Amino acid sequence: MERPPEISIGQHRIVFLTDGFWRNDGGCMFGVVPRELWKKNHPPDDLNRIRLNLTCPLIIRGSDAILVDTGIGNRLSAIERKIFDHGEGWMLEGLGALGMEPGDITAVVLSHLHFDHCGGIVQRRESGTLEAAFPRARLFIQKGELAVAQSTKNERLRAAYRHIEECLAPNVKSIEAIDGDLAVCPQVTARVTGGHTRDHQVVVVREGAECFAHLADIVPTRSHLGGPWNQAYDLDALTTMERKAEYLADAVRERWWVSFAHDDRVYAARIVLEGGRLRIGDTIAAREKD
């Protein structure tokens, strides 16, 4: 696999790993936005699915190697693999292209516990056994997100977290439940946004005047830059819109790099304001597999 692209934020390397492409229903990804508006940039297949990425930035400085989200991984059943058009995943190959292996990851920050962001914390072996995918990593998850995922009585939420037990069980000793914003290490911060889930969090790397943010499912694709362009999955769309506006205003003013969790063409971009509308400026293009 070709070496993943990267940028520098001061002394931090931000490497754009991916767990590969997958497909999901376009209507779910764009909520109230009409299909006629989103289909040009995200053409649907005959099942109304659009192609999406599973971007997982890796933040490296010194001995720290912090992975933000883990994609789907290889734990899906045969039926689920067909539904979502995702196979074994690309994470291990991406790490290998960097000369790294899963044991080199020192921390994983999970934005939330939906399957397309946390599934890769486990690895299914040929025997069918699920094991911790990153055996030396501390797993940072919001305490409220854990509580909802593990004990909700709400029917919609139970469906959204039906995978959670098999993902968390092999990692129980590595989980660090955090309550609110936290400096994972100097200059790397997990910040709670809410919106997509009640305790959804993003990761910001700031060193001097330079800044990078992975906004996860607050801005999952370049098309979601627009205020009302939100997912049907958002539990609180108004909070998503508020947090998105705040972060993107900072990104424009301070020339941040912002990465997209699910854009199939762009890993990351600088955000610019042109004619009153937010657009992408300089970009790091997403790559196909060799």
Can you describe what's shown?
With 290 residues, the chain is α+β, with helices and mostly antiparallel strands. The chain has one domain (6-285): Ribonuclease Z/Hydroxyacylglutathione hydrolase-like (Metallo-beta-lactamase, Chain A, 4-Layer Sandwich). The protein contains 9 helices and 16 strands. It has helices spanning 26-30, 35-38, 78-84, 91-97, 115-118, 143-151, 155-160, 164-168, 237-254; strands at residues 6-9, 12-25, 49-61, 64-68, 107-109, 122-124, 130-132, 138-142, 175-178, 182-185, 188-192, 201-207, 210-214, 257-259, 266-274, 277-285. The strands form 3 sheets. It has a 7-stranded mixed beta sheet with strand order 1-2-3-4-5-8-9. A 7-stranded mixed beta sheet has the order 10-11-12-13-14-15-16. The chain is globular and about 55 Å long. It starts with 5 loop residues before the first strand and ends in a 5-residue tail after the last strand.
